[in-house]
Amino acid sequence: MSDAEFRVQFAGPLVSFQDAGRRGHMRFGVPASGPMDRLAYRAALAALGAAADATVIEVSMGGLQLECVSGRLSLALAGGDFQIEIGGTKLSGWTVFEIEAGQRLSIRPGKQGSWAYLAFAGDLQAERWLGHAATHSTSGFGGGQLQTGQRLRVENAQLREDRHGQIVLPELRNMADPMRVVMGPQDRCFTDAILSSYRQEEFRLTDAYDRMGVRLSGPELTLSEALSIPSEPITRGSVQVSGDGVATVLLADHQTTGGYPKIATILGCDTDRLTQLRAGDALRFQPVSAEEAVAISRSYAAALDAYLAEIGEPKGTLAQRLMRENLISGYELSAETNDAAESGGSARK
Question: What distance in Å separates the CA atoms of residue 128 and residue 142, rounded to the nearest whole number?
Answer without folding.
Answer: 5
